[in-house]
Amino acid sequence: MNVPARIPVESLILDLGGVIIDLEIEATVRAFQQAIPGLDPETFLGKRGQLPFLNRYETGAIGTGDFIREFHRHYGSSMTDAGFKRAWNAMILGFPAGRLERVRAATSRVRTFLLSNINEIHEEALDHEYRKFSPEPFARLFEKAYYSHRIGARKPDAGAFLRVIEENGLDPGATLFIDDTLQHIEGAARLGIRTHHLKPGESLEKILDLYSL
Q1: Which structural domain range is residue 68 located in?
Q2: Which 8-state DSSP code applies to residue 30?
Q3: Burial of 73 (0-12, 13-18, 19+ CB in 10 A)
Q4: What is the largest CA-CA distance in the chain?
Q5: Cβ-count burial of 208 within 10 angstroms (0-12 exposed, 13-18 middle, 19+ buried)?
Q6: How far is CA 21 from CA 34, 99, 107, 116, 146, in A?
Q7: Where among 54, 88, 122 does a domain terminate?
Q8: Closest by alpha carbon to 108, among 208, 197, 4?
Q9: Residues 61 and 108 in one domain
Q10: Are residues 30 and 104 located together in one domain of the fold?
């Protein structure tokens, strides 16, 4: 639900995967299915309930080593750590041409934050991908980046959104949150945050243009 357009956007909260960086989650599913033929993609993708150890990993309750061990125990797999990380990162396709420049332009107009459900392996892969464009960590593109595994909260939990809003003194009604996952949009909207659900066929660049950001 959007706040009426007459209220100007003073701050911006962006999702990462599927919004700033392109993802193909099915690529990771396919990579794991080569090693685990019986892997159920519906469960793996969270359509039949979240794997409990993934939730704990993405909120920082367990580290990478424990996460990989839990995964092997759950699926009965025996991949090497290097093989596991390659498969886990297969979903990361990279930054589309011009998108980082468009985000950087928005940061010069309004206070801009990142809020991402992410884990340690993907954060490392993200920074590696970003080094193709800048020597600095990706997080420095924003006033502040909030990664779920670092703050101990995931979208759509209210605590994840409130951490960004309250820590930075933001007005929810003048803050625009852009995400490609409907349940995250709904979670933000319940807190009075202005939202835009990025749907298939839309691009972040066009949405930023729409709001003159």
Answers
A1: 25-88
A2: H
A3: exposed
A4: 56
A5: buried
A6: 25, 8, 17, 11, 16
A7: 88
A8: 208
A9: no
A10: no
Burial 151-174 (b: 16+ CB within 10 A, else e): bebbbbbeebbebbbeeeebebee
Query: What radius of gyration do the chain's Cα atoms show?
Result: 18
100 domain residue, yes or no: yes
pLDDT in tens, the chain (213 residues): 344 456 789 999 999 999 999 999 899 999 998 988 878 777 766 555 567 888 899 999 999 999 999 999 988 888 999 999 999 999 999 999 899 999 999 999 999 999 999 999 999 999 999 999 999 899 999 999 999 999 999 999 999 999 999 999 999 999 999 999 999 999 999 999 999 999 999 999 999 999 999
Nearest Cα residue to 13 out of 151, 111, 130:
111
**Is residue 136, in this structure, part of any structural domain at all?**
yes
Would the pTM count as exceeding 0.85? Answer: yes
- Examine the domain organization and report whether 144 and 57 are in the same domain: no
* Lookup: tokens for 75: 């699926």
